[in-house]
Design a protein that fits this description.
Layout lengths: L7 H23 L4 H23 L4 E4 L25 E9 L1 H4 L8 E8 L8 E8 L4 E4 L11 H6 L4 E6 L7 H8 L1 E6 L2 H10 L4 E4 L5 H14 L2 E3 L18 E4 L1 H14 L2
Keywords: Hydrolase, Magnesium, Metal-binding
Organism: Micromonospora jinlongensis
Catalytic activity: adenosine 3',5'-bisphosphate + H2O = AMP + phosphate
Length: about 280
Amino acid sequence: MTSPPMIDGAFARWLASRAGQALLDLRTEMGFADAGALKSAGDKVSHDLIRTELAKWRPGDAVLSEEDEGSRLAWAAEVNTGAVSRLTADRVWIIDPLDGTREFSEEGRSDWAVHVALWARRAPSPHGLVAGAVGLPAQHRVLGTDYPPAYPPMTVEAATAGERKIRLAASRSRPPVFLTDLAEDVGAHLVPMGSAGAKIAAVVTGEVDAYIHAGGQYEWDSAAPVAVATATGLHASRIDGSALRYNEADPRLPDLLVCRKDLATRLLAALQRHSG
């Protein structure tokens, strides 16, 4: 096998692509008769592949993966031990090997993803993300910071009617309870989708205008998609407007807003009215 690209953004894309192909192969091999077994196998296959490649090609970097033992533990900020070396590392890969296991296990669904992001201590942005890729294997594409997509075009409604009918990506199974009221307030309609990565990718590509989440997530759920979204020029923040921050002692990052910049002020104001 040839060596992967050495530049971090291209490496993230390469890694997401390799894991995505392994997941597609697994779907073909196992089929969909046993959804639980397919979910478990998918998590393991992708996690093991990504961990192996990072150990080989980025041995000096720390890793935070959803599938690591103890990944959800919140550590005291002053902890400085080998057990949580990511807290003192200069570079940390934040990984979701399979975002959207439910969709992955359903035949015909393509709204699942592989997330690969790199956080750096000396990054110029508050979120600290310097590279990232979102693999959408069943859609046969990877969105990455090495070649960020062009800023998404205006919606057809906005371009033809002079008005913006906002399209909000929403969870298929557990949308925030306030989201229906918020959508009515701003004149939006909800577009149900699967994984967080697929929803943020849809904002990046212009299929929807915004994604709001407030139901509880972890850093790996959004790191790679946020890296790509901000490289594209989109707005990304907590729902109170504060900065998203990664590689924190507590990996929980329960809420976020990703949207077109021209909608950020309007949506943040609506969030103040409806998310309290």
